[in-house]
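Researcher: Good morning. I'm working through a list of sequences from a screen, and I'd like to move beyond sequence-only analysis. For each chain I'm collecting a predicted structure so we can compare shapes side by side. This is the next one on the list. No need for commentary yet; just the structure.
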Amino acid sequence: WNSGIQETISITNNDTTAINGWTVGWAYTNNRITSSWNATLSGNNPYSASALSWNSSIQPGQTVSFGVQGNKNGNNAEIPTITGSVCGSNPTSSSAPSSVPPVSS
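Model: Good morning. Structure tokens for this chain:
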């Protein structure tokens, strides 16, 4: 929507051993997070997201995802670079943010 963002961050295990616990981080220039799901979110730009008990183990070839919702505070939604040990040496930002209509209460 005009002032909001919704983004999904996916972590795929491309290794041959399981990932047991994960934490990733990122920062925006203008965007600000107001809520998240499927991860424990901390920080206030930069942000950090860590695994919950049920999605902390990622088997080889599997993917887990979490999401954030927030305010754009500018004209364009930003696609941040996600960092963390699960990102390896070449972190990527492969999923574009999506715009969704506001939810009516």
